[in-house]
Automatic annotation (TrEMBL):
Residues 31-116 form the Cyclic nucleotide-binding domain. InterPro entries: cNMP-bd_dom, cNMP-bd_dom_sf, RmlC-like_jellyroll. It comes from the Bacteria. It comes from Mucilaginibacter mali. This is Crp/Fnr family transcriptional regulator.
Length: 194
């Protein structure tokens, strides 16, 4: 198995020696999911961060009315976890599902803690990831409160350019908080405007 993608991802924020790379990759567990297979189910404790090497994951919750709310997507070269559950080790609120056949590398919370002790610069790496996630989630909340559906769709297109024509329309609609019908009309109007 090639670890190049995850090593490139890490090297955006920290520099590792050959020995540190070997130790880090020894803590990773390869995992494959089939389309619609769950990595994590709402109510379970999240024990891993997942780094997607191919395919795509989505994180979503289901409200008491049975409505799905998509919180995030993780295409290749992205990390995903139920952060609340991973940090608190309490039952989670997210389902994490493969939208297609997906390959990933899992880093357990236990091994992440070992990394912090053995290679302290990993604390910096995961702090940067957490900060970026916090900023993105805050901006998404503000966008949801203050922008139109069309504006939120344009932001989605900028954030996930590889997923625009790749994901089912209902997944994108659930992420930006509109009906699939609204999204279909918005897409048609945007295409006419070009």
């Amino acid at each position: 198995m090639s670890f190049q993608l995850i090593l490139d991802n890490v090297s955006k924020h920290i520099r590792l020696t050959e020995a540190e790379m070997e130790l880090f990759t020894s803590y990773l567990l390869p995992k494959k999911l089939k389309k619609k297979e769950l990595l994590l189910q709402q109510g379970e404790v999240c024990k891993y961060s997942a780094f997607v090497t191919s395919g795509c994951l989505r994180g979503y919750s289901i409200d008491k009315n049975g409505t799905e709310h998509v919180l995030s997507f993780a295409p290749a070269d992205w990390w995903m976890a139920d952060m609340y559950s991973l940090i608190s080790q309490q039952p989670g609120v997210l389902n994490i599902e493969a939208l297609e056949e997906t390959e990933m590398l899992l880093l357990s919370k236990v091994n992440q803690e070992k990394l912090y002790a053995e290679i302290p610069k990993f604390e910096r790496f995961f702090r940067i990831l957490a900060e970026k996630s916090l900023v993105a989630n805050q901006q998404r909340l503000i966008d949801r409160l203050s922008l139109t559906g069309e504006e939120r769709y344009k932001i989605f297109c900028n954030r996930y350019p590889t997923l625009i024509n790749h994901l089912p329309q209902k997944q994108i609609a659930a992420y930006i908080g509109v009906s699939p019908e609204f999204l279909s009309r918005a897409r048609a109007e945007m295409a006419k405007a070009r």
